[in-house]
């Protein structure tokens, strides 16, 4: 396989960074793009020199396409993924994996029955910052991991996204939108989750779009917009999460990992997007460097040590997981940003949203393995 031929379905805002990243990998060849809006597909094809602009059905039925890049809205993820798999194509999809647990199971079962690969965003855990965390955890710098905390507090997406409606419909909300970044990072470092619980609320029944061109329009909110949860990992570590579209601002670090010998702190240089970025510094403290005092003081990150980042992909590299999947298909190995992990993340989130309704823990029936670290010299490491 000299080229992995990609058909893009969904030509919205997020597609541009995927197309930019695809151009960095010789193995990837985007040969067609499709949208329900034909004009949008034609404009995308012209902007990125894609040979064909067509309908989603034409991409699914094109025998020369190896993989569908599914960047549709969340409500359409399962439908497109199942259709592509049914036509014998591999699939790489945006998050969330699906909007219904049964649909998620069908995707994995169909892929397995046909010997096809399913990949899924986010792939930010493959970036330099999270791979740095993976390296130092594997090297034992913080000892045995005991806990993790993740916080993402924003006031939604209506201030910057031109069409934010789908973020407030089923399949949207802060947990399904932001949660996959944090949960995927946690699982890539600590392994699968055994059970979860949570609380959730919907603070506003409607919101005003503040971005152009639809400034002033009102949207109905159909999902919970402030979610707090607790996770018990299979290895015994305990995690906590808060994902919210109801917070104006916050000083909380976005992700911290605690161990018997030290702490990793991953602050957020981009307060809007959380760990929705690939690069950034990783701070740490150990028993020897931690300072203790009974006097109140402001503790800044200048008091933390910075871990050297030896890894690549510290810029926005959405689509890196797709490139890894292409090499995985070629070489017959597991993909790193794979469907099993994405479904496990989705299963965790559904359990967190269901827990406050039933007043009980959600015991996870799904699981996954920790993906292998990304080689520092990827993709040179994959050249045959």
Task: Count structural domains.
Answer: 2
Characterize the overall form: globular
β-strand number: 17
- Strand percentage, roughly? 15-25%
Radius of gyration: 21 Å
Helix content: 25-40%
Question: How does the major sheet shape up?
Answer: 9 strands, mixed
Quickly count the helices. Answer: 9
Can you offer a commentary on this structure?
With about 375 residues, the chain is α/β, with parallel strands linked by helices. The strands form 3 sheets. Strands 16-15-14-13-7-12-11-8-17 form a 9-stranded mixed β-sheet, with helices on one face. Strands 3-2-1-4-5-6 form a 6-stranded parallel β-sheet, with helices on both faces. A two-stranded antiparallel sheet has the order 9-10. It has 9 helices and 17 strands. It folds into 2 domains: about 160 residues, 3-Layer(aba) Sandwich (Rossmann fold), CATH 3.40.50.720; about 180 residues, Dihydrodipicolinate Reductase, domain 2 (2-Layer Sandwich).
